[in-house]
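Notebook B, p. 112. Complex prediction, attempt 2.
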Amino acid sequence: MAKTGLDGHWRGPTIVARALRDAGFEVIMIGMANTDDIVTSAVDEDVDLVGLNIGGHIDVAIRAIESVQSARPKLPIFAGGTITPRAAKQLEALGVEVYPPGSQLTDIVDAAERLTGIK
Amino acid sequence: MSEAATQALLASALQGDRSSLARLLSHIERDPSAETEIRATLAGTETESVVIGVTGPPGAGKSSLISALLTHTTKSFDRTAVLAVDPSSPFSGGALLGDRVRMQHHGLGDRVLIRSMASKGESGGLARAASTAIQLLEACGWPLILVETLGIGQVELDVMNLATVVAVVLNPGWGDTFQANKAGLTEAGDVFVINKADKDGVQQTRADLQDSLSLLQSPVPIQIFDTVAVNQDGVAELWQGIQTYLADAKAAGLLEQKLLTRRRRLLMRILQRGFETRIDAYCCSDHGSAQVQKALAGELPIEALEEDLFANIPQLG
């Protein structure tokens, strides 16, 4: 679970991480992270899913997503945060599932289970 | 994962492929039998990496201290691996592994490898797979391994059986002279750190610790360092202190002794685990579960159950 961009809104990713933890996931929080941090964590931790909290510029997030996809081609990615409908389309075009503000935690947990192949 | 796939991954990890190493680490976390297999393959390739255990209560600053140490460790050692353990929930089995938040801004690129690990119900402050993970990291050419335990209380001290040197991290205002003289934590450290030393109470905590440590029979002097990890204050001195400890311990023959303890401990754990598997198999068998039911109903004394268990213990495999 990583935050791209420089905004300091921790509540969202923390609540999502907590919901996943309570659903039995091992969630590795890496906090505010640049592209290299996200790619290194995805590889070294051998994760099954990447969760991005996107704040600020969508280009930064897209760069991170493309780098992760190049390092680990089949790794599923989902994203939340303040994402405009236009940015959401860009993310979806990259195969990223988007959960904008107002999404239900149960839907996010269901998505994590589906994307990691648990259910 | 098949045995052949594990061996292929191992071969590639040994040649330095990081993602293979990462996948193997996941594999041993999930599957205890893979641990046995990897241990068997690595047997005889004993290397001598330095393993530094970092332990202490939750929030003492263990992760921040490791993060601060990386700048120094990579001057003495080519590369540094970090194994960071955090607790699994006894309720959901899930875990929130947050050590990386403090650690990843080291800017040292590929020379540092950080791996998080959930404790998965282990009660000794580490994870079941931690010892094999260390062995694997050693074999893959990581000369220095920093092992961070989850936040511990007084006796979750498995790390002392795995580490070459144990650093105990405390904070100002931690306990008093009675706390410092209690068994467990203060007996297990080779180096003590009072982190967050910009807060009140450093002198008192140091005095209480010193008082307790002065009564320990250690062949090597045990030092106490004050640090403010997030500012790098005192961290260079701590690293120097750890190196001094290592040199002194080597000269005193203590490192050799520790290595023997470590191997013995590993051996015992493997034997215990094998035995637990067999007990489980007995309890799941038709005969065994019937005996257990009888014991639960009070029809069979526990001693008789134990005798029956030993008489009927299933062969492994």
